[in-house]
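ok here's the first one, seq then struct tokens
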Amino acid sequence: MQDHILGVKLCTELAVTNYERVLQAAGGYCGTMSVKLLDNQAFYGYRVRRTVDGKLYQEYFSLKQNGKRLTGAKKKAVETLAQDRDRELETLQIKAREAAKDERCFNADGSVKGISYLLKTEKSGNLTPIFQVGIASELERKTVCTSFSLNAHGPDGAWEKAVDAYAKHKAIKRNSKLYKRLKSAMPKIG
């Protein structure tokens, strides 16, 4: 069935669309099939497309042989090949995301990406210091935003709650080195 593979195209990060960059920055949402049936004048077959470690992989699996469209078991075999390749790329995607998790959590200055120290203006006009967490949740598959008041929890307590929320949604274990790094990255207040 290897003769059904038309080609493999490896693109640099420049070819990644804005939408794919957003998903990649958010950790990518693996589990969704990236196998698409293409049926146009130029090509009839399956395209497998995934971004792995900043590179876009596109592979094509033709559903034509000797100028004729495949049907039945032969068509199913090509579909299975495409789905198998998609699962291989998904595995690479997950491994790359896990390997880069440390880098993705921190800004260049050492602060935590997604946790900010802010002064929130209350309805009364009072300013309340908070740690605001705004991240793409791997747990809920959506953006989550929450905040913790320094007045209510104290600076250390609010930071711990913010890091706990961050770790929960980014699937970071409490006993990991990364979690300890996050806890020690509390910004200077005041």
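and now the second one, same deal
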Amino acid sequence: MADLSIGSNRSGLSRRAALRLAGAGTGGMLAATFGLVPTRAEAAGAGAVVGGAAVVPSGVGGVPGGAPLPLLGVHYVPRAGWGADESWRINRRTGQPWPVEFAPGQVITVHHTAIPVNDADPAASVRAIYRGHTKDRGWADIGYHLLIDNAGAVYEGRRSGADTVPVYEADGRAVTGAHVQGNNAGNIGVALMGDLRTRPPTPQARRSLALVLLALAGRHQLDPTGMATYINPTSGARRQIPTISGHRDWMGTACPGDALFALLPGLRRDVAVALGRPLPPLPSPSTVPPQPLVPPRSPVAPGAQSLLAAAP
């Protein structure tokens, strides 16, 4: 048996456990991965990481009462934890909250926020992004579904309802965000916080991104290394796109930054291995595009360390 690991930080999540989580019901894997059961410390207002809760599994081998999930070691921060002012979701013309739309999840898009992160108070950085999207741009809510800071904490982005599972409503459809113009419905946006044009993400952020991609790809039974036919449920327009894409795959933009974009092929392959999916053949050296910012570290995962390492 092999364990899911990222870099030198072993999570202890076996492939069998990954497959079990991936097969969980509506929102089940996200609930198990991000610990969407409030901890006792959180309920008491103490012991959480930057206003969030330690990871607690929801019915998947967890310790009742809020012990952290040692298998993953990810910290999840709900909207209340990072201080979302829910009044900002009000349509100023009507005085009512903007209507919320949902659609079946089809693809995942990776972003960077392109602004520095306040490592001393990353929740303040999330609030700044929220303010920029709502107050400055006039959007209904923060554009991304999930955000990840330099320490690897995962933040709930766009509100999907009153339940504790981010991204989804009760029937399993994903809330429509605002992160890829014209192609948002059914497109789940995950943003690493920071400017990743030349600086790669921290190992902690890369680890959490891989686990988030694993959770989302497993939830929707996506082929992490494959292509998807994205169908806009509003316009009916079709688009061939990687199931796990970078923002620039959709349109002319530098997002998610050269350094992060160079990691995506390796992340896709690692998530596929963790889900037990067959891998496509590696391209021959003559067809591999140059990667000057993040040179390949292994023949399996260019620009990223493998998620799957043999158990000792």
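notes on #2: Confidence is low (pLDDT under 50) at residues 1-14, 17-28, 35-71, 290-312. Residues 203-220 form the longest helix (18 residues).
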